Structures are given as structure tokens and as C-alpha cells.
């Protein structure tokens, strides 16, 4: 029986899944690497660590599935969006892999946000003006590290770097390239005006290709270490965001994927580019017939991890995620009136405010760690309510929401999310949707399934979570307060961000 291997290069780990021809998961694996490090507001990964994580995940998945390399009909690789690795003329790295969480481009993006040029960029590329996008990180390099900028012969992403190591080819799929701020989301070509803005040339970027584009694994020690055979077809595939939606079965226009991992996103697959009149959503091309439309937040699981770290340091012992969730369950909905604005890493959609900062509001002497924990889970859910409102504003309100990401393993967080949104959440059978989606592209590329929609129909729903009618009015009231609080704090966010940036020098 033919098997298909999907590899998902996430921000903090690499996950892999082996599917059979019916889309059933036969085995899975995971490799780890640093999520990113560097001076404040920097976030870089060593590129070689990505290769090590990929090898580990691939071998584990093959062993778990009890399949040989000869049984793998095709491989596909997905990757996190918005990364940037700068290479010199000998294809040696001049930087680490700069991740989406790196904030160095904030000042450069601020120079264009709200300007006619910035609006035009958004309308062409589908990328709001924000320092997360590689365009603005390249502008930062031009301004702050001119030596690196002058030596740069090629700009690639983490996925491209791994693909090149596996196949010897430089190529980038539309969905990954669409997250640069440098590709025209309408024509599916590199945008000449955006390139000129940064003093870049098209030949410094990989050729663009659709997700079904076929490559072959080359004969190298890396391929052998991954447990694979040279000559095995590699289907180019898509970004982890597209793969997550595919793995959740949310690739029909009336379905959305709600994902909470390190970050978070709410997205739909549309049949045409859809842009918000005020630039709130992003719109990333998948192929010539599909676009990923939605918004992402910086602070998903990373916010919970921050609080877990605070509790661990305060108590002198490691506190687990489950322990934080259990604490949150000790207090009723509304966290005793404590609100959390979880902007610990700035924010993306729908406000696109890198200067937003984390806030706990409403604290009194009777409040304790449990109130902080619940308020944080509720605060992240409020961010998704903002994203849902944004999608409704552009006519993309879904009939069904599929949940994915690590938060699906927390019954309390699922209940909070469903009640804040007042929507039922449907849970896919396989929780690691991005690795499933990557493997599904291998199936599509080899003709085992006809197309994107057909692959999505293979996904089975394993459960659902309904909103609690008693909690809905509580969260309606607090969300209105939460929204007012954010608006009132906007000037203070700017002030404190300037102060924090001044202390970096």
C-alpha cells in the first residue's frame, strides 16, 4: 500500500505524519529545535537545527507507521510563514532564520502604515503594513546592517532552506511567498514596486510555483538520515497555515479554522482575493483558484507559556500547562472581573499594533493566581472574537468552525472559546492538522486525491464543543469592556513602547 509523508516545519518544533491512501494517520513523529533567541525584539533560529528537527520527525513517523522508505510514494513539506534567512553568493547564511516573532521591522513598517503607499502595498500584496512581514525586516537590514544587506545574494524562508537541502532546488510555493509582503496576491508574481521599495531584485528570491509542483529527493546523507530514498517525489505543498486548514477539513467556503498554537489564527479559504477596506485582514494566495483569508494573533500558547513561567519562578518549581489550566478552572467565568489584554508579544490582526502590551485589569486584594490564569485564557478568546467580527465585515462569516492546535487538548479553553464566540466548535479526528495537511498535498500531487476540496473531505470530525448559555451573556458584557479598555489604552501603549525601546539602546 502506498503511503504519504507530510512534514510540518513549525516555529518551535517539526512534526511529521504518515497517511495511507484513505487519509488515515498511520504514524507520527516530532523533532524539536529552539523557537528563537537573540537580543530583545530579535528572534532567530540556527538553520541547521531545522534540518536536525526534520530528520528526527521523519524517522519517528516512519518508525511509528512501521513502513519502509520504499512504501513512501511521495513527501511534502509545509512551513511556518514570514521567516527570513539571508544567504551570500556562496549560499552561506548571513543571518539566522528570522522568525515571524522577530520585531525588528516595526519602525520601518511604521513609516508606511496609513500612508497612500502603504495602502497600495496592502491592496496588491494582501499583507497589512506590519513589521512581522519579511519586507520590513529586509528594510531594517538595509538601514541597520548595511554590510549584510550588501552581501545578500538570496533571501529564503525556513521551508525553502530545508527543501533545497533535500532536493538541491530553490523554489517557493505561492502561499509561503504570499507572506513576504513582496508578492502580488492577484497576479501570483513578485511585486515589482515592493521589490523596488527595498532596493531588491527578483533574482534574489526563489522562482514561484503552485503547490502541486513536483521535485525529487536527491542522493545525500540528509535524505538517508531522514529515512527516505533518493528519487522519491517531493510535492511542493503549502504553508503551515494552509495545511492547518486542510487538515481541519476547512477548505470549503463555509468553513473556518480556529487555530491556537504558539500564536493563533482564524481563517477561511476563499475563491477570490478578499481585502478589508481598512486593511484588517490578510489575503494569501494558495493557487490560482484559492486564497487564504483571515487574521492571526501573536499571543496564543506563548501567552500561556509566559504565565506558566511566571508561576514557576515564583514557586521555585516547574508549573505545567495542565496545572495552569486547572488553576483557571477554580474560578467562575469572568475571572472575578479580572481582564487580560494578552499583548505580551505585540499584536497582529485586526489592529496590527506591535506596540500593544500585556495588561491585567481589575485586580483587587481578593484575586490570586487562578484569576490571572482564567483571565488570560478568556483574553485570548476575546482576540478571536475580534477576528470573527473582522471576517464578518468582509462577508466571510463561516457556517462552521473547526478547531485545531494545542488548545484542543484543554477542555476548559475549548469551552471558554465556544462561549465567548457563542459558536459551536468542531474537532477534527487528528489534532495535528498541519502535518496531516502536508501529507495530503503529497496525495494531491500524486493524484491519489483529485484536489484541495476532495482532500479536505477525507477529514473526519471527532467531537464538538457547544457554548454554555449561562456563560454567553457574561462574556458579551466583558468583551464590550475589553474592547473599550483597549481603545482607551492606545496612547499609553505607544508611550510605554517608546520607553521600552529607549532602554534597549
TrEMBL record:
UniProt keyword terms in alphabetical order = Kinase, Transferase
List each copy of the Carbohydrate kinase FGGY N-terminal domain by range.
3-247
Q: Key word tRNA processing present in the record?
A: no
**Does this UniProt record's set of keywords contain Kinase?**
yes
Q: PROSITE patterns from the entry?
A: FGGY_KINASES_1, FGGY_KINASES_2
What positions does the domain Carbohydrate kinase FGGY C-terminal occupy? Answer: 258-445
- SUPFAM superfamilies attached here? Actin-like ATPase domain
Give the record's family classification.
Belongs to the FGGY kinase family.
Name the record gives this protein:
Gluconate kinase, FGGY family
The top of its lineage is: Bacteria, Bacillati, Chloroflexota, Anaerolineae, Anaerolineales
Amino acid at each position: 500500500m502506498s503511503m504519504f509523508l507530510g512534514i510540518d516545519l513549525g516555529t518551535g518544533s517539526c512534526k511529521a505524519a504518515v497517511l495511507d491512501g484513505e487519509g488515515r494517520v498511520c504514524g507520527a513523529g516530532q523533532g524539536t529545535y529552539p523557537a528563537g533567541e537573540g537580543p530583545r525584539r530579535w528572534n532567530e533560529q540556527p538553520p541547521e537545527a531545522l534540518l536536525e528537527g526534520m530528520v528526527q520527525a521523519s524517522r519517528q513517523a516512519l518508525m511509528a507507521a512501521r513502513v519502509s522508505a520504499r512504501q513512501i510514494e511521495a513527501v511534502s513539506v509545509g512551513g511556518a510563514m514570514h521567516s527570513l534567512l539571508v544567504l551570500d553568493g556562496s549560499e552561506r547564511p548571513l543571518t539566522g532564520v528570522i522568525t515571524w516573532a522577530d520585531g525588528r521591522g516595526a519602525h520601518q513598517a511604521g513609516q508606511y502604515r496609513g500612508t497612500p503607499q502603504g495602502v497600495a502595498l496592502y491592496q496588491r500584496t494582501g499583507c497589512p503594513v506590519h513589521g512581522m512581514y519579511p519586507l520590513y525586516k529586509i528594510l531594517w537590514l538595509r538601514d541597520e546592517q548595511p554590510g549584510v544587506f550588501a552581501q545578500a545574494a538570496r533571501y529564503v524562508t525556513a521551508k525553502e532552506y530545508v527543501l533545497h537541502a533535500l532536493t538541491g532546488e530553490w523554489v517557493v510555493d505561492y502561499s509561503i511567498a504570499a507572506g513576504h509582503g513582496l508578492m502580488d496576491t492577484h497576479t501570483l508574481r513578485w511585486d515589482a514596486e515592493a521589490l523596488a521599495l527595498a532596493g531588491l531584485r527578483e533574482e534574489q528570491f526563489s522562482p514561484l510555483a503552485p503547490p502541486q509542483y513536483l521535485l525529487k529527493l536527491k542522493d545525500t546523507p540528509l535524505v538517508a538520515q531522514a529515512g527516505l530514498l533518493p528519487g522519491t517525489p517531493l510535492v511542493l505543498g503549502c504553508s503551515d497555515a494552509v495545511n492547518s486548514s486542510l487538515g481541519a477539513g476547512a477548505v470549503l467556503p463555509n468553513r473556518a479554522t480556529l487555530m491556537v498554537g504558539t500564536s493563533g489564527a482564524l481563517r477561511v479559504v476563499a475563491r477570490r482575493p478578499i481585502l478589508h477596506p481598512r486593511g484588517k485582514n490578510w489575503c494569501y494566495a494558495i493557487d490560482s483558484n484559492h486564497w487564504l483569508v483571515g487574521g492571526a494573533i501573536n499571543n496564543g500558547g506563548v501567552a500561556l507559556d509566559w504565565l506558566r513561567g511566571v508561576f514557576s519562578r515564583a514557586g521555585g518549581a516547574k508549573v505545567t500547562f495542565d496545572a495552569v489550566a486547572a488553576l483557571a478552572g477554580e474560578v467562575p467565568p469572568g475571572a472575578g472581573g479580572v481582564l487580560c489584554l494578552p499583548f505580551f508579544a505585540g499584536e497582529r490582526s485586526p489592529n496590527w499594533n506591535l506596540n500593544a502590551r500585556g495588561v491585567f485589569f481589575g485586580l483587587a486584594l481578593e484575586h490570586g493566581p487562578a484569576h490571572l490564569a482564567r483571565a488570560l485564557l478568556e483574553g485570548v478568546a476575546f482576540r478571536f472574537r475580534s477576528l470573527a467580527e473582522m471576517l464578518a465585515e468582509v462577508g466571510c462569516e463561516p457556517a462552521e468552525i473547526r478547531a485545531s492546535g494545542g488548545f484542543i487538548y484543554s477542555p476548559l479553553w475549548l469551552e471558554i472559546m465556544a462561549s465567548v464566540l457563542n459558536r459551536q466548535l468542531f474537532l477534527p479526528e487528528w489534532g495535528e492538522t498541519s502535518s496531516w495537511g502536508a501529507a495530503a498535498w503529497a496525495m494531491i500531487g500524486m493524484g491519489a486525491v483529485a484536489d484541495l476540496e476532495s482532500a479536505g473531505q477525507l477529514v473526519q470530525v471527532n467531537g464538538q464543543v457547544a457554548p454554555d448559555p449561562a456563560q454567553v451573556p457574561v462574556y458579551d458584557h466583558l468583551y464590550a469592556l475589553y474592547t473599550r479598555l483597549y481603545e482607551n489604552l492606545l496612547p499609553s501603549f505607544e508611550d510605554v513602547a517608546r520607553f521600552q525601546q529607549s532602554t534597549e539602546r
